[in-house]
Amino acid sequence: MPRRRNRFADLERMLRQSGGIAAAGSRVGNFAAFKAGTRKIKITQKPTAADKVRVTFGLLPFNSHVPETVTDADRYIGVITAGSLAMAKSGGLAKTDLGLDETKDATVLEENYYPALVRAFFAESATVAAIEKTSDITGDKYMKVPGKSMSAPFGRTIAALDAKKGSATASLVNSEEEDVKKHVQAILKDDKKGTLGAARSVSYDPEVFRGRTKVLTRGVF
């Protein structure tokens, strides 16, 4: 499920504090023009239609009880774009590293489940340098390394426990978010694991699970 986020929260606050009026050419003024549609974002690396296709997988949440014997009804649907999925594979990750399973009829579609996410940025090459760019939204100057980013959901998996403790003690019941996070990040930072080299940066969004709701049902056509 998508997260409810607002990356422009600070600018929104400053615009409200200014009464919706800001000097033309200022950061807030440029943001106001962006919101009004008179200032446009120029997309230089536009993803293809194929990259934007949303793919679903079954995940075992960290903030939910998991029985010793897991069934499809214990898994919840998580979404990843085809482009990010391809990058995750090229970055050295396997579905077992992320805890991804095939979506089945019994897999739960839950609007209050926001899977833990790993985010990674891969530069075009190991030696490429940052170049100066101008924000289309604020007009600010900033330095940017040419490359691409990906984000991938993850859930409980014994892969991290195998690496940490050995398969003899591995159990999905004992799978912890912190262990899986570290396991996934270590793979993405290892230049020998995938074909993209080591990720320049890796970050993480923790899982949010606000409890079950009966609002959503899985569609059947």
Overview of this structure, please?
- With 221 residues, the protein is of the alpha+beta class.
- The protein has 2 domains: 12-41, no CATH class; 44-209, no CATH class.
- The protein is 23% helix and 20% strand.
- The chain has helices at residues 9-17, 27-36, 82-90, 95-98, 159-165, 177-188, and strands at 54-59, 76-81, 113-114, 116-123, 131-134, 141-144, 147-154, 201-205, 208-209.
- Strands 7-4-8 form a 3-stranded antiparallel beta sheet. It has a two-stranded antiparallel sheet with strand order 1-2. The protein has a two-stranded antiparallel sheet with strand order 3-9.
- Strand 5 (131-134) and strand 6 form a beta hairpin.
- Helix 1 packs across helix 2 and helix 5 (159-165) crosses helix 6 (177-188).
- The longest helix has 12 residues, at 177-188.
- The mean pLDDT is 87.
Itemize the secondary structure elements and their pairings:
Elements: H1 9-17, H2 27-36, E1 54-59, E2 76-81, H3 82-90, H4 95-98, E3 113-114, E4 116-123, E5 131-134, E6 141-144, E7 147-154, H5 159-165, H6 177-188, E8 201-205, E9 208-209
Antiparallel strand pairs: 1-2, 3-9, 4-7, 4-8, 5-6
Helix pairs in contact: 1-2, 5-6
Specify the helix fraction band.
10-25%
| Main pleated-sheet profile | 3 strands, antiparallel
| Major beta sheet, strand line-up | 7-4-8
**Strand tally:** 9
What is the CA-based Rg, rounded?
20 Å
One letter per element, helices H and strands E, the order comes to HHEEHHEEEEEHHEE
